Amino acid sequence: MIRACIFDLDGVIVDTAHYHFLAWQRLAQELGVPFSEEDNERLKGVSRMRSLEIILELGNLTLDMATKEELATKKNGWFVDYVNAIRPEEIFPGVKELIHQIKSRGLKVGLASSSKNAQRVIDLLQIESLFDAVVDGTMITHSKPHPEIFLLAAERLGLKPIECVVFEDAEAGVEAALAAGMRCVGVGSPEQLGNAHHIIPRTGQYTLEKLTQLEHLKP
Ligand code: BG6
Ligand code: MG
Fold first, then answer.
1. DSSP class of residue 9?
2. For the chain, which terminal residue's Cβ has fewer other Cβ atoms within 10 angstroms, N or C?
3. For domain 4-15+88-214, which architecture applies?
């Protein structure tokens, strides 16, 4: 029995995934590392430091920890500059409606984002009241693809993992949801998210009918 939907934030509720990409691309350029949108798929869902390490691996660069911290902070500054301009209207079309429908069926709704900026984005979008539980990058030790964040979200919702469905746009996020023993709806392309139970191009296109069908698929 499905009792809750847990949403990722960046790329599922709002287009902040693109802002992460722009900020990483700028840093990669400064470092002289070629960095494409395809490379960026590997950064989605993982922590800030892990993202930087992937870029350094792409450029065959090795840096000490202090320099890495400095670069990660620089990227975050650019990201925050983009994010601070976000307005509530930027929530993806149909997402609020979907969440209200889910709630009207008596299900709970959670948010689980690896980002340490998640609370800022939630505040700017004015969507805090939509969620029964919010878990972000400041509350976990291991970021996606580790299941910790989704297990913590389920715990905060007072539910078992098997009762939760995750909405994710990142390959690492789909892996994390499956590792947590949850069903997963991938938001994006089947090439990236092929392991998810259902795949849709946009979050707002999901329906309660599909959620019912999901119940018949094994986590
Ligand atoms: C995830 C994004 O939500 O948060 C990643 O998908 C990002 O791209 C990660 O690196 C960490 O975000 P932040 O805001 O803590 O740097
Ligand atoms: Mg995401």
1. S
2. N
3. 3-Layer(aba) Sandwich (3.40)
